[in-house]
What we know:
The structure is a single chain. By secondary structure, the chain is α+β, with helices and mostly antiparallel strands. The chain has 2 domains: 10-113, Phosphorylase Kinase, domain 1 (2-Layer Sandwich), CATH 3.30.200.20; 121-307, Aminoglycoside 3'-phosphotransferase, Chain: A, domain 2 (Alpha-Beta Complex), CATH 3.90.1200. The protein is globular and about 55 Å long. It has helices at 10-41, 84-91, 125-139, 152-166, 176-194, 231-239, 243-247, 252-267, 271-291, 295-307; strands spanning 45-49, 57-63, 69-75, 99-103, 108-111, 115-119, 200-202, 211-213, 219-221, 227-229. α9 (271-291) packs antiparallel against α10. The protein has 10 helices and 10 strands. 50% of the residues lie in helices and 15% in strands. It has a 5-stranded antiparallel beta sheet, sandwiched between helices. Strands 6-8-9 form a 3-stranded antiparallel beta sheet, covered by helices on one side. Strands 7-10 form a two-stranded antiparallel ribbon. The longest helix has 32 residues, at 10-41. One of its GO terms (molecular function) is kinase activity.
Amino acid sequence: xxxxxxxxxxxxxxxxxxxxxxxxxxxxxxxxxxxxxxxxxxxxxxxxxxxxxxxxxxxxxxxxxxxxxxxxxxxxxxxxxxxxxxxxxxxxxxxxxxxxxxxxxxxxxxxxxxxxxxxxxxxxxxxxxxxxxxxxxxxxxxxxxxxxxxxxxxxxxxxxxxxxxxxxxxxxxxxxxxxxxxxxxxxxxxxxxxxxxxxxxxxxxxxxxxxxxxxxxxxxxxxxxxxxxxxxxxxxxxxxxxxxxxxxxxxxxxxxxxxxxxxxxxxxxxxxxxxxxxxxxxxxxxxxxxxxxxxxxxxxxxxxxxxx
Length: 308
């Protein structure tokens, strides 16, 4: 089988090598052959590579046998994306791109093509937040019976263990009070969650860059890292969007608090739960970024956490 001639986007190469080292390099080297296999299996014609594409996935713009446009996604086999195909199948195009075919063993999916170059980041912030919340509400549905999705409680339990480990990083020496607050808040939230009945399918990685313009619907979500749990956890990642713009605005602390309050009111969630989950998620992301040497994003995440 002849591998198609294309270049793997630089962002994908850099991210996978940084996050996954030797295993990531082996996956990158196998990508052209894997792409050739699924182009042939699903009778697809390659148009071009989506640039800059995903951080941990290769997206090829293709045509199906009937000439209709689609996108072939080949994802790196990380645990967070293991159930992406099941979430997309359950949504069946309701708020998210539709899935036409999948091969979970290779993290291969044939998807409805959206406009990859036009995300909610192209809109002014207030308009983008309004559209984002409208799309997210469509994704918050009951999961199927006997579903395979990880609960927020179990997933956060793993994150808390990693955050506790990273608390001792030399670069985090001055962050101990902030990390301890994030750990305490998440413990309280998890205890409260055990008594709550909100048990919805969540996107898990919802932000403006993961909502694209499309023909079938004005905006559709992509790239879920699905979990099951409460809406405030999902909304928390949206609350931290556009941190560079927020940090450069007049009165960023007040603006950060207003954003959380406004999102909580618009989504009808408890503002303190949203603030708590937002703080936990950005502190966890900040220390993860420190751990992998991404000091620019670490600084943004942790600065935002301090504002909350």
